[in-house]
């Protein structure tokens, strides 16, 4: 890929892309302000402007800084190569659910296999002409292990999750199990026409289990938790008590999960 410096206003973000996370955009903008853009975006030149392939947050950060130009790699590959580059970029995002990640990884594997068919067809014909033998294709799972750094077992599990019916995938999103790979794999193991119902049943069973567990925690550990807060609250304890009276625990839990995912990324 060729490196160039292009106008920010000429970069076109394809429809359907997620809106960037503005907290992440501000972090990148601050980094660019201090040390510059270390990783150029990737674009594909078209009749009018450049189509963005990778670097949505970097582009948004440069736009936030009101910079007129941005470093970009000009992608010269075909449509399959372009989509592979997009997926590779997406797989490095921390905010993908387990379902989204597996769908992306499975698509990468299938496209890689399609690309291999295209590239090996002529080579195989020529090889058979010479020695009567053909080249054996590597396979998308092996390529994923090599190029994406995922294990073969992980790639196989992603392929299995990706076979879920669309109704099952939507059911997983509706009941909050789209980020639970164990539940997704469990549903993928049943007949297609029963997968959506299997997801809903799993969610209901987990809800009952959580309710029972929470009741045990409340019964057995409320005093211990209050003691822990007392010991760690210090001078802030009155404010903490006031905050606990008005806070929304579910929102706090979700915020903590987001922070944990970001720290682990």
Automatic annotation (TrEMBL):
One of its GO terms (biological process) is chromosome segregation. GO terms for cellular component: chromosome. InterPro entries: Chromosome_partition/occlusion (IPR050336), ParB/Sulfiredoxin_sf (IPR036086), ParB_N (IPR003115). It holds the Pfam family ParB_N. Residues 4-91 form the ParB-like N-terminal domain. It comes from the Bacteria. This is ParB-like N-terminal domain-containing protein. The lineage of its organism: Bacteria, Pseudomonadati, Pseudomonadota, Alphaproteobacteria, Hyphomicrobiales.
């Amino acid at each position: 890929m060729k490196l160039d410096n292009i106008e920010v206003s000429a970069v076109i973000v394809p429809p359907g892309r997620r809106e960037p996370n503005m907290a992440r955009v501000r972090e990148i903008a601050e980094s660019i302000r201090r040390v510059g853009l270390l990783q150029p975006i990737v674009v594909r030149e078209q009749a009018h402007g450049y189509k963005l392939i990778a670097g949505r947050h970097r582009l948004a950060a440069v736009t936030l800084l009101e910079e007129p130009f941005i470093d970009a790699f000009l992608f010269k590959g075909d449509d399959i190569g372009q989509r592979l580059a997009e997926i590779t970029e997406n797989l490095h995002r921390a905010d993908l659910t387990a379902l989204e990640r597996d769908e992306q990884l499975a698509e990468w594997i299938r496209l890689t296999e399609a690309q291999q068919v295209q590239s090996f067809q002529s080579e195989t014909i020529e090889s058979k002409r010479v020695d009567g033998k053909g080249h054996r294709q590597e396979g998308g799972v092996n390529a994923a292990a090599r190029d994406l750094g995922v294990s073969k077992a992980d790639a196989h599990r992603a392929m299995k999750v990706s076979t879920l019916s669309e109704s099952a995938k939507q059911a997983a999103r509706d009941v909050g199990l789209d980020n639970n790979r164990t539940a997704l794999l469990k549903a993928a193991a049943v007949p297609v026409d029963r997968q959506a119902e299997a997801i809903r049943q799993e969610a209901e069973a987990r809800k009952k289990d959580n309710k029972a567990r929470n009741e045990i925690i409340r019964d057995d550990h409320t005093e211990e938790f209050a003691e822990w807060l007392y010991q760690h609250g210090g001078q802030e304890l009155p404010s903490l008590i006031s905050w606990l009276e008005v806070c929304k625990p579910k929102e706090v839990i979700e915020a903590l999960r987001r922070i944990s995912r970001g720290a682990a990324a």
